[in-house]
Amino acid sequence: MVDFYSILSYYSFVISPHIRYNIISNYFHIIRPKNLAIVAISQFLIYWVYIMPLVDGQEIMLDGSLWWLFIIDTVLIAAAGYVINDIYDQESDLLNKPRNSYIGVGNLSIKSAWFYYGSLVLLGLGLALFIAHTIDKLHLLLIYPTAVGLLFLYSKSFKKLPLIGNLVVAIFCAFVPGIILYAEWGVLEKARNTSPTEYELVFGMFLSYLTFAFLSTLVREIIKDIEDIIGDKSAGYNTYTTVYGKKKAKLLAIIISLVLILSYGLWFTPFVEIDAKVLITGLISVMFCFSLFILYRLIYASAKEDFSAISKWLKILMVVSLFIFLCIPFLT
Fold this sequence. Notes:
The chain has one domain (30-331). It is built from 15 helices and no strands. The chain is globular, with a radius of gyration of 23 Å. Helix 3 (65-88) runs antiparallel to helix 5, helix 9 (196-227) runs antiparallel to helix 15 and helix 14 (277-299) packs antiparallel against helix 15. The protein is mainly α. It has helices at residues 4-29, 33-55, 65-88, 90-96, 110-134, 143-156, 164-183, 185-194, 196-227, 229-234, 240-244, 246-262, 265-268, 277-299, 304-327. It is 78% helix and 0% strand. The model is unreliable at 4-16 (pLDDT under 50).
């Protein structure tokens, strides 16, 4: 006689560890650790390359361990955003990217994902409160719930509306470096009087890079919507692509790409009277040529694989631009 109890016990012993490992792994992968690492490293490097040279004995807002806590808090905002996005995207992700779906059968349960999201939000809120209290500027605490709230509304509603969700993501990508400038605006204001040349360089480069971050992300988000049109339609999302079609979405992406290329003129503005402008022009030309290549690929794109490749090229362009942005101060 077959001992079904023994068979079930055997399979629960063999399968359960794998399932447990998969669930634990999903806790890690759902927050996109590679992207979070880029956020943390970029904030750290931008601060030390652009802000610290301006300090020169001045009192800075985020000194010592506070700066590290500030970076961790930004990372927690992004991590919570990824989790809540996957919670609301569960249905469409099963069609658009089934291999990268972290919630559902054999993965995290909805209840576990919500608990994980709440834990990240509360931890980040605690850090934000500590930082605001330490620097005696409690009004800055409002930045945290505003950011978390917008990401929640993006995942729940905004991303299902034409362009609204795309704009929110683009704003947040510009927010990552922009919050550094906001946090240490007092240092920059003092530099305007004491070191006007350095002030113009820092302000001009931040303006250029924030513009790039916003426009390049906006293009990439539209491209991703084109790529995900089947799953988004199935989930009932009213993205620009599902409402107006692939052709109009592609045309919009081309137009914004052209605006992005034209915006590279901002990168030259701070270097009109600098001897190293030839070398700097060479670096910016790399971005220009790379963007032209992407635009060319976009014009002739038609299949999902084409748009997927363009999305990856845009991500590479973002990394290249960050590298150039960080190199420029060493050439002036």
